[in-house]
DNA sequence: ACATTTCTGAGGTACGTACCTCAAAGACTT
DNA sequence: AAGTCTTTGAGGTACGTACCTCAGAAATGT
């Protein structure tokens, strides 16, 4: 049978109260006694019974996801994953709340963050474009005792908080490699479309993409990033303009998570079967485009994994536990038609 | 505050004892009463406190992994993942045992399975080549009250047991598509190397591969499968023979999980940079070959995910719970150098 | 109306840990 | 040696569920 605190007390030659003080880091125990208890823990292989601890603590974990407010299909998928997993979380006394934050408004994000404190929430997963204000507000939130993970796009600088997401430089490089290999020896231009190049993740993807193309594929010319600002009209306009200006576009890399509008514009204006088109994130739209051959590959991260990973990390932080590192590594997935499931 | 069984009893207008009978499926409750309790559960949103339940039950879950005994690096990785996750499992009162089963010996596997019963183990994850004997033994094991999942390669036929692994047909098709796209318009032969073509997974991969090559790449000829029988000497011999017999080999697909020996043979005999080489499973060897450019792509399934998924499913089965389906879907991953983490 | 069976209630103990109080032992200071 | 401060022990209650017993109520059959 698994040893209990009682066994531990006996093994360490101390009382239950002292064992309790050591286990829960309470004051008033001599260093020598603490060490004796720790040695006994090693010796008898004591492992805290989490069920009993949770029950005794009667503690719940309150988490919040702060997500941009946008019609983005990828975001909708994220939210769906959170909602789907919610009942499973509640089973473990984890209550997850989703809050919309205005997109691209550091001021509003900051005010939301400032309103949070450890009385109302134990952990927060933040998905926000980088900005000094957001970063500072995050720091202060951490100082107020709230655990934080950064989701998908991290804030720059020294990180006291965990990051949950893929390495965007690597993701861009992956896209670049596939573009180069799928195009073979063909010579021409590659269109690069982004919602905005102000976001850290877009910049990193672009850098990774360019590095591969520049180094290994002299036959390809990656055009300057064109920004849609999330506007389908504008997307269509810049795509039309691009295909008018360049007469040998043989590839297209859409590096933001909302691929639908740019893809539809490209499909409407050019012959997609002559081009290699690569986008990001698995959504209903990108899946459909993969299946009908419009898209050649999708670089994706699993939203369900992102959500569960963020929750696991926050919970572990709240309870002072460690996580299985390999389980929290978000993979940069390559999707083609054949491996959709 | 979260409602407890006491609240539930009050809401349903019955006693705690009756609530307990309903919740744990004990006999001696009228149908009408059961329904009243279930309605009250819905109404007040009662969720069983798992911590308390586990504590009260004081029940542990004993699981066993039955794995082939082989020097296979992929298997070693699997075992490493099990061992690494073990302490995290023990935290949740799950005890995992790993047992070696002789490879390719249905008789021995069957005798091991026959020796198992619900007194010594609650759930078993089996990884074994298909055979009628193993299948029957599995069925009998299930009848003795032991939960079973089939790992990586499932037994054919009607499945009362869960399967944890990828769709090998899809995996083969994925390899075929990448082979075709990476080779572009080049014309030539593609070598296909397998440890054995008796295993279900190998056959399925081959079928998926051929379907894509045959339908979409008339410029490519997939050669008949060559079997190494796990013998490096033999691997070298058949590879040498292949490159002597065919003078225009431009691709190589290694479809079994042990890619090292065939890869080394191919690298020693031919010029790998002129060929597209695709293998399965992420191991130290395939990672190194991806990094040095020998391998062009790897089709993989995450061993850590396999292990955790098998354990989660078995545990849920033991406790009569459901799992989050999407979490247990093992992805067919495409790995190139750029997305190795 | 009776006996019999089925159903329900009341009450208890147990699981292992957290957290509390109070007393007492020990260490240290002057 | 007396006083103060630190450390330890003993004992308690609480968390929410599982599982047990036994008595009594309700439904069923004759």
Structure explained in plain terms:
Two copies of one chain form a homodimer. The first copy, chain A, is elongated. In chain A, the strands form two sheets. In chain A, strands 6, 7, 8, 9, 10, 11 and 12 form a seven-stranded mixed beta sheet that branches. Helices cover 47% and strands 18% of the residues of chain A. The model of chain A has no long low-confidence stretch (mean pLDDT 91). Chain A has helices at 5-12, 16-23, 31-44, 50-57, 73-91, 106-115, 132-143, 168-183, 200-216, 232-245, 260-269, 284-291, 303-318; strands at 61-69, 94-102, 123-126, 147-151, 162-164, 188-194, 220-222, 226-227, 249-254, 276-280, 297-300, 333-335. Chain A folds into three domains: 5-56, 434 Repressor (Amino-terminal Domain), CATH 1.10.260; 60-166 and 303-328, Response regulator (Rossmann fold, 3-Layer(aba) Sandwich); 168-300, 3-Layer(aba) Sandwich (Rossmann fold). Chain A has 341 residues and is an alpha/beta fold. The interface between A and B is large, with 52 and 52 residues. Chain B binds a DNA duplex (30 and 30 nucleotides) through helix 2 and helix 4.
End-to-end C-alpha gap of chain A: 42 Å
Structural domain count of chain A? 3
CATH architecture of the largest domain in chain A: 3-Layer(aba) Sandwich
CATH domain fold name of the largest domain in chain A? Rossmann fold
Helix content of chain A: 40-55%
CATH hierarchy, class of the largest domain in chain A: Alpha Beta
Count of alpha and pi helical runs of chain A: 13
Biggest chain pair contact, residues each?
A: A-B, 52 and 52 residues
Gross morphology of chain A is elongated
Query: Stretches of chain A where pLDDT falls below 50 for ≥5 residues?
Result: none
Strand content of chain A: 15-25%
Radius of gyration of chain A: 25 Å
